[in-house]
Amino acid sequence: MPSIRRWSVVVGAVLVGLIVGWTSASLRADADKPAALVYELRTYTTEEGRLPALHARFKDHTIKLFEKHGMKNVLYFTAIDADGKSADNKLIYLLAHKSQAAAKASFDAFRQDPEWIVARDASEKDGKIVAKLESQFLNLTEYSPGK
């Protein structure tokens, strides 16, 4: 019987060691994972005929400035009709942020950036571009392929 007891102690010690090792590896892996991102879906409706000016401003200035201020550019879209032609005067895009608070801080810094102010003013020399701005924060679902 002592050999069975000794065997049980050895097996128990091995199991405890495996569990402790697995748990600490899991904790380390979780610490190495990037924090979950918060996404922001933004829609700009332009004044009539001003979508090309908005595209130029984003292409030439805004995207780089977003990155400078900690925002991750994800995707940019324009709506199309059934024939694949531009359907309206909207730019729709998705940004990623570390948090909603980080998004606010990034946009506050962006709006005060002298480079942005110069780009905005120059792009609006022929008139206002954006008529309406809509913003919605989003989280990925647990079953999202992006998780």
Q: What is the string of helix and strand elements?
A: HEHEEHHE
Would you identify the CATH architecture of the largest domain?
Answer: 2-Layer Sandwich
Q: Estimate the strand proportion.
A: 15-25%
Q: What's the arrangement of strands in the largest beta sheet?
A: 2-3-1-4
CATH topology (level 3) name of the largest domain: Alpha-Beta Plaits
Global shape:
flat
When the domains are counted, the total is 2
Radius of gyration: 26 Å
Percent in helix: 40-55%
Number of helices: 4
Tally the beta strands: 4
End-to-end distance, in Å?
Answer: 52 Å
Low-confidence stretches: 3-31
Give me the secondary-structure category: alpha+beta
Mean pLDDT over the residues = 83
Major sheet details: 4 strands, antiparallel
Kindly provide the name of the CATH class of the largest domain. Answer: Alpha Beta
Protein topology:
Elements lengths: L1 H31 L5 E9 L4 H18 L3 E6 L12 E8 L2 H13 L1 H10 L6 E9 L9
Antiparallel strand pairs: 1-3, 1-4, 2-3
Helix pairs in contact: 2-4
Explain this structure.
Residues 3-31 have low confidence and may be disordered. This protein folds into 2 domains: 1-33; 38-138, 2-Layer Sandwich (Alpha-Beta Plaits). The chain has a 4-stranded antiparallel beta sheet with strand order 2-3-1-4. Helix content is 49%, strand content 22%. By secondary structure, it is α+β, with helices and mostly antiparallel strands. Helix 2 (51-68) packs antiparallel against helix 4. The N and C termini lie far apart (52 Å). The radius of gyration is 26 Å and the shape is flat. It has 4 helices and 4 strands; from the N terminus they run H-E-H-E-E-H-H-E. The longest helix has 31 residues, at 2-32. It has helices at 2-32, 51-68, 100-112, 114-123; strands spanning 38-46, 72-77, 90-97, 130-138.
